[in-house]
Amino acid sequence: MVTGAFVEVPPAAQAAGGAADAPPAGARSRAPWRALWRRAVRLAPPYLFLAPALVLLVVWTYRPLAQTFYLSFFSWNLVPDVPMVPVGTANYERLLTTPDLADSVGLTFVVIVAMLPFTLVLPVVVALLTRRVRGRAAAAYRALIFAPMLVAPVAGAAVWQWLLDPSAGIVNTLLGTGTNWLNSVDTSLWAIIAITGWHVAGFAVLVVSAGLTGINPDYAAAAQVDGASRGQITRWVTLPLLSPTLAFLLLMTVLLSAQWTFPLIDTLTQGGPVGSTTTVYYLLWEYGFRSHDAGLAAAAGVLFFAGFMLVASLLARISDRLSRYDD
Amino acid sequence: MDETAPVGERGGIARRAGGHIMLGLLGLLCVFPIYWLYATSLRAPQDVYELSVLPWPLSLDSYADAMAKNDVAGMLLNTAIVAVLSALGQLLIGLLAAYAFAAWRFPLQRPLYLLFVGTWLVPFQATMLPNYALLGQLGLLETLAGVIIPTLCSTLGVLLLREHLMSFPKELLDAARMDGRSAWGILWTVVVPTLRPVLAALGILLAITAWNEYFWPAMVLQRSNAVIQLGLRSFMGTEGNDWGPLMATAGLACLPVFALYLFLQRHIVNAFVRSGLK
């Protein structure tokens, strides 16, 4: 995970800054100042190298995050000349009393759960299958499965709109049906989920394959010597050793599923029909840029951020526990 | 693969054939939409609704049609500018930051590092309104600069490069320092040449991501369709049933990425895997 152990690095700056031959402090009357200056010069380089990234980070991530929090207590329509009206917690009250939010959270939950077969089950099956075939073929299959990941989301949306076309699309022709997959309440969300799954499964396959090659084969060999069958080895040796990778994929699925669906929803269904594909992110987008209700959108943003933190820290804790297997 | 596989994984011919069949089917299923995209785009206009697997006779009419209806070439150029500039900017800024983290120990290092890691938890949607307002104040709405500038700090780039720099042989840095070179000089004469493969792979990954980016351009360029993803969207909205030119536009939107992928497959796959395993 991202929060890897902090690695101690020798203080390179001290030599590089030419501080080794600095005079002892207080050698002359101006020496304290000069020593301070030298100290600043010696300490400056890492901060200077870090500055551009840090400025961008503050300006484009942390400043707006704080401002969103502030904005969530105002009523404003995004027009610069129109003053912001303080409304206290009215935005939050509106959010929590209208059914929109609860509905979209429910839909998002469905999306996340329905994505798990694509990001966890399928990759494990594929990774186990690729161990049966020889090296070059395995790489070729992986390349094929990975290819959709490179398709731009909008291009993917376009081709799936054509594949799922109710009158002439190949899916309906093959099935002998005339279903309007993307425009009926019963199927629209599932169509979006399937397209998203097609898009991201290749990435998950690669991650699991990488995790699998990282497992020491001695464990399986030892289990075999003890008389374990292939299925038993997979179940009791390989999968537990793979669990940190799977936990990471679970975390990604939970945090990013709704993000992955956004371009598809925006281009294919616009949240409809009758709100059947309005996930939390699409709801936020609508509040902000369709209804121009900045305060409400900000309040929703704050709530989602809080939810995010909660889920992420929970999953990070779980994955910490899981990664202790390989000792 | 075979020598690393556990003994028990070496199976009979039936087992291997089963693997081939299942993986082959799955692979075909994954690639079919991409194939269909290009197959449709290459059919003659009157054949677009045909469902034969091979498009024949081949025709570029749909491409000509797409070019005539939309400024596809201009959009591709704009998108290429955005992708290249933002990838280069992200590489440079990420490299500088990663170098700072790896080569020095300084006060506040840990909190500053966590500030970078923390961006993973901030969903784009929680920051979009203030950013939109700021871009408006800077006069950058509806411009390509407005698309590029806010994305210039790639946390992924910083963390990935930091990890590589951490494993950089310290002896090399020490030797360069003995020669009396400055930190800036060491970065460009010692670190960058050694890191070239990593920088190339990361650069490609960042460029592909920027090329395919949708959310941010959709917000900044609400009134124009200057980049290909947005042009494609407007095409879908207005002429959704004109499948030939639509598939041609979509095909062109994916072509540069596929071309990169075919030539640099191994690098790209490695970069994607590493990005996931941060």
Automatic annotation (TrEMBL), chain A:
Protein's UniProt keywords contain Chaperone: no
Record flagged with keyword Cell membrane: yes
SUPFAM superfamilies in the cross-refs: MetI-like (SSF161098)
Pfam families (alphabetical): BPD_transp_1
Matches recorded under CDD domains: TM_PBP2
Subcellular location: Cell membrane
Ranges annotated as spanning the membrane: 43-62, 105-129, 141-163, 189-215, 236-258, 294-316
One cellular component (GO) term of this entry: plasma membrane
PROSITE patterns associated with the record: ABC_TM1
Residue intervals of the ABC transmembrane type-1 domain: 105-315
GO process terms (BP): transmembrane transport
Family indicated by similarity: Belongs to the binding-protein-dependent transport system permease family.
Name listed for the protein in its UniProt record: Multiple sugar transport system permease protein
Origin species: Thermocatellispora tengchongensis
UniProtKB/TrEMBL annotation, chain B:
Family: Belongs to the binding-protein-dependent transport system permease family.
Keywords recorded for this protein, A-Z: Cell membrane, Membrane, Transmembrane, Transmembrane helix, Transport
Transmembrane segments: 21-38, 75-100, 112-134, 140-161, 182-211, 243-264
Organism: Thermocatellispora tengchongensis
Residue intervals of the ABC transmembrane type-1 domain: 76-264
Pfam families referenced in this protein's UniProt entry, alphabetically: BPD_transp_1
GO cellular component, one term: plasma membrane
Matching InterPro entries: MetI-like, MetI-like_sf
Full protein name: ABC-type glycerol-3-phosphate transport system permease component
